[in-house]
Amino acid sequence: MIYILVAKTKQQELFYLTGKYARKELLEIRSREQFFCPSCQAPLLLKIGEINIPHFAHKSLSDCDYFSEPESPLHLHGKLLLYHFFQQLDHHVELEKHLSAIRQRADLLVDGRYAIEFQCSTIPATQLNQRSEGYRLLGVNPIWIKGLKQPCREEIGIVHLKSFEIAMRQESGPISFILLFHPPGDRFYYHSNLFYISPNRWAGKTKSIQSTRQVFPFAIPKRLTKEEFRSVMGIFQNVKRRYIRSQLYAENRIKNSFCRLCYELRIDVGNVPDFFGIPMLGAECMKSPAVVWQLQTVAAWEKGISMEVLAASGRVPLTNPGVTGQAASLMTEYLTLYLSFANRDSTDSKVLDSAYDIYCKNLRKLRK
């Protein structure tokens, strides 16, 4: 079943279910009015139950392109709360705005410039990117908000993300973030300062803000303090230790890339220095764990191979061919950190200081 909150009347006027009418009033309106889908023009039913939010639904299974995804009560509730959130901030907001030029419907269109998509179900990342590109063709900025059934735990920790959630990242400042909304608590959450560990695991900060304190354009998260970054470092060191333990039992150490790199660099495989496996922003361009691509970086440098050549060689697995420049820049930045420990004087505090300096430097670069 496809649920919607906006319908056309027989007089071709839009009728919104935004909480303006009590259920008793809606029952009276339903008895005398007919409603139609504003996109496919099919007849709609006005459903007024005691549990779910009043909504419209197609009378029969519809192949309406604009309402192709079934909407849960969570989605309907969240859209209504977001609608009132923008209204209270005196923004011009349109609910379920149909954009005929691109055959898309925005959950909310704010000030004619921002398409707010409140996404409560899993969709392919390719579809999400296509919809975003459609909005951009109209000069509209897409903003994706992930719907939450349960509140998030607020901490510095490992964040498990699906590919479509990663595609929701916003780049409206030096710190990218994923914005989430929990309708039952009327609260926004942020996953920010995300450091890549593996395709579905990132280390980062989760923080929330009550909707009454939120602003628009949405508040931008702050950078990590050094103590918060220390927690991220701890996560990466734990990930590195688990990875190393898994490699110690490799059947053929000669063919094992990690063991071979340690041998080339004269490093004890069971005691890899702390300056290998450092968290760095933008490392999602690398397929390998941080400890591996950082060992590869140093091994190449000792052989006189430039980072540009290494990134283009294919010896360091990348997520796709279009990120070779990003990978070369990342490896160059890491090499700067490594060379600061050329004498191997790598106390925990010195490694933390250097890694945090690079993190702050990257944010300053992104701000320009």
Describe this structure in words.
- The two termini are 48 Å apart.
- The chain has ten helices and 14 strands.
- It is α+β, with helices and mostly antiparallel strands and 368 residues long.
- The strands form two sheets. Strands 7-8-9-10-12-13-14-11 form an eight-stranded mixed sheet, with helices on both faces. It has a six-stranded antiparallel sheet with strand order 1-6-5-4-2-3, with no helix packed on it.
- The longest helix is centred in the middle third of the chain and has 22 residues.
Q: What does the secondary structure layout of this molecule look like, with pairings?
A:
Layout: E1 3-4, E2 6-9, E3 14-16, H1 23-32, E4 35-36, E5 43-47, E6 55-58, H2 73-88, E7 93-99, E8 104-110, E9 114-119, H3 125-137, E10 141-147, E11 156-160, H4 163-166, E12 177-182, E13 187-198, E14 201-210, H5 226-247, H6 257-264, H7 290-302, H8 307-313, H9 324-339, H10 348-367
Parallel strand pairs: 9-10, 10-12
Antiparallel strand pairs: 1-6, 2-3, 2-4, 4-5, 5-6, 7-8, 8-9, 11-14, 12-13, 13-14
Helix pairs in contact: 6-7, 7-9, 8-9
Brief overview:
This protein has 368 residues and is of the alpha+beta class. 35% of the residues lie in helices and 22% in strands. The two termini are 48 Å apart.
Estimate the helix proportion, in percent.
Answer: 25-40%
* CA-CA gap between termini: 48 Å
Q: Regions with pLDDT < 50 over 5+ consecutive residues?
A: none
Main β-sheet, spatial strand arrangement: 7-8-9-10-12-13-14-11
Rounded to an integer in angstroms, the radius of gyration calculated over CA atoms is 25 Å
> What string, H for helix and E for strand, traces the elements in order?
EEEHEEEHEEEHEEHEEEHHHHHH
Shape descriptor reads: elongated
**Sheet with most strands:** 8 strands, mixed
